[in-house]
Design brief:
This protein is of the alpha/beta class and about 425 residues long. The protein binds pyridoxal-5'-phosphate.
Length: about 425
């Protein structure tokens, strides 16, 4: 690891939690230089829903390169892009009766968020955006202003403005209707909350600690947006592409957002690719007004098209996700019940679930023991108090169980060590 310590900036992050040098990966297993294998419950923070080096996707990219397909084409028309657009329409939009145009942004998720809020501001002529407590939307300045996490906000260096923070679903407990609160603030011309251009929301908060928006809450948020002519943006960068079961995380709520951002697992292969889905009537962009050298990544188009055809042509993949999600739910419920001293609750939906610990130090301890025992898993949440399971959706059922068993072992060890006070509580970074 010395090369990294000497040459790589202090900004490096995940490398610190998993201090080994990885060489290879297949589906849900990573291998390091020493030949040690690790089950991957991080999956590129949700970028590898179809696993590492998925053979079907790998073949499509090999074929594409072998045929001298365009690798870089700015945002010019290519046959790979045309195939992706048609497939996305056929496999995703049409069956869900959704009508969106696609905007290809720069390759990162945060760039899709920047494009969406810029468009909302331009289309409405308003500046204010509503974002929610504990939301995470990226770390470039516009998206960072929407993000709640203090560590990221502190690094901004300038004021983060033009955003009003509203309490998320359940933020004050289930008895407080946070939509009614927001409604009153918007309805009152002198509340001090400027009429917003848009609200941006994650249906399950990925980085914010697996908080789940109630389906009825989402419906009421949509109604509020319609009533006050505010655009509703769903940031589906982490929760989308099947992570919660359905392709979009908002499907079970039956809503129809004005814009949707997608990135992380969109390419299917871990390649950077980001889009904004926008209702045609909002498409007020002038040609090239939001640009970027790497808009639309043709290799990613090739793998994304294959992923959509292979996994989303019928309901089988979705059914398999739901089955695995049930396994996770049952297993985590069992842990919550069997280890009361750990003071855990289960959080999340679909294949983005986790364990929230009352004491964040315990969550941290669980992930480091898990790593020693061959499982890659991270924490999330405002106090890093949630152990977050993001296994590839394609994980073999026995590997899923093996990973869950490692978590159980880590929880058991953590509880017994905490009782003996054999580890001191770490200062919790905010
Ligand atoms: C990861 C993420 C982003 C930012 O994507 P980057 O590619 O890291 O810029 C934005 N929104 C959500 C919900 C995310 O999970």
């Amino acid at each position: 690891m010395r090369t990294f310590e000497r040459l790589e900036s202090e900004v490096r992050g995940y490398i610190r939690s998993f201090p080994t040098i990885f060489t290879k990966a297949q589906n849900a297993v990573l291998t390091d230089e020493g030949g040690n294998q690790y089950i991957d419950f991080l999956a590129g923070a949700g970028s590898l829903n179809y696993g590492h080096n998925n053979p079907v996707l790998k073949q499509s990219i090999i074929d594409y390169l072998a045929s001298d397909g365009i690798v870089h084409g700015l945002d010019m028309a290519t046959s790979a892009k045309e195939r992706f657009l048609r497939t996305f329409e056929e496999r995703i939009l049409k069956p869900r009766k959704l009508q969106y145009k696609l905007q290809f942004t720069g390759p990162t998720g945060t760039n899709a968020v920047e494009a969406a809020i810029k468009l909302a501001r331009n289309a409405t002529g308003r500046q204010n955006i509503i974002s929610f407590t504990n939301g995470f939307h990226g770390v470039t300045l516009g998206a960072l202003a929407l993000t709640g996490n203090r560590k990221f906000r502190e690094a901004a260096g300038v004021p983060l403005t033009h955003v009003h923070r509203a309490p998320y679903s359940g933020y004050f407990g289930m008895d407080v209707d946070t939509i009614a609160m927001l409604d009153k603030l918007i309805a009152d011309p002198s509340s001090g909350v400027d009429h917003p251009a848009a609200v941006i929301v994650e249906c399950v908060q990925g980085e914010g600690g697996l908080n789940v928006a109630g389906l009825n809450w989402l419906k009421k948020l949509e109604q509020l947006c319609r009533r006050y002519e505010i655009m509703m943006i769903v940031d589906d960068i982490q929760a989308g592409c099947g992570r919660t079961g359905s392709f979009f995380s908002f499907e079970p709520a039956g809503i129809n957002p004005d814009m949707v951002t997608l990135s992380k697992s969109l390419s299917g292969f871990g390649l950077p690719l980001s889009i904004v889905l926008l209702k045609p009537e909002h498409d007020v962009w002038k040609p090239g007004q939001h640009n970027g050298t790497f808009r639309g990544n043709n290799m990613a188009f090739a793998t994304a098209t294959t992923a959509l055809n292979h996994y989303w042509g019928d309901g089988r993949f979705q059914a398999s996700i739901e089955k695995k999600a049930q396994t996770v739910t049952q297993y985590l419920n069992k842990l919550v019940k069997n280890y009361p001293d750990a003071e855990m609750t289960r959080r999340g939906r679909g294949m983005m679930q986790g364990l929230a610990f009352k004491d964040p130090a315990l969550a941290d301890h669980v992930t480091s023991i898990a790593f020693q025992n061959g499982l890659i898993i991270e924490t999330s949440g405002g106090r890093d108090e949630v152990v977050k399971l993001l296994a590839p959706l394609t994980i073999e059922p026995e590997k899923l169980l093996a990973g869950l068993d490692i978590i159980e072992q880590a929880v058991a060890e953590t509880v017994s060590q905490a009782k003996g006070n054999s580890f001191t509580k770490k200062e919790v970074e905010a």
